[in-house]
Structure prediction request, 104 residues.
Amino acid sequence: MKEVSGDDCFRVLDDSKMVLFYFTASWCGPCQRIYPMVKDLSEKISEKVSCYKISIDDDDNSEVCEKCQIKSVPTFILFKNRSSLGIINGGKLDELIQLIKNNL
Prediction:
C-alpha cells in the first residue's frame, strides 16, 4: 500500500486497475488497529487493485477529503475509471473484502 497526498490522489484514479483509497488519521485508534490487516489485504490483491493510504491529518489532502465527503475514519472507497464502486465507513474488514470481491 502506498501513501499518497495532494494532487497525486486524483492522478492515481487514472490507473487501469481498480483503486482503493484508505482514509486514515494518526490519532484514530480503529485506523491503527485495522492497518496491518488492510496492508496484508492490499498485498494479496495488488495485481487487480491499487491501494492508497490517505491521511486526513495532511493539509494537502483537504481537497480529496472534501470531494470524497470523508466524515469519519477509517473510510474505504473503491474506484474504477474514476467512479466510486462503494464506500465502507469504519473498520469493517469483512465488508471491505466483500466489496472488492463483488467488483473483481
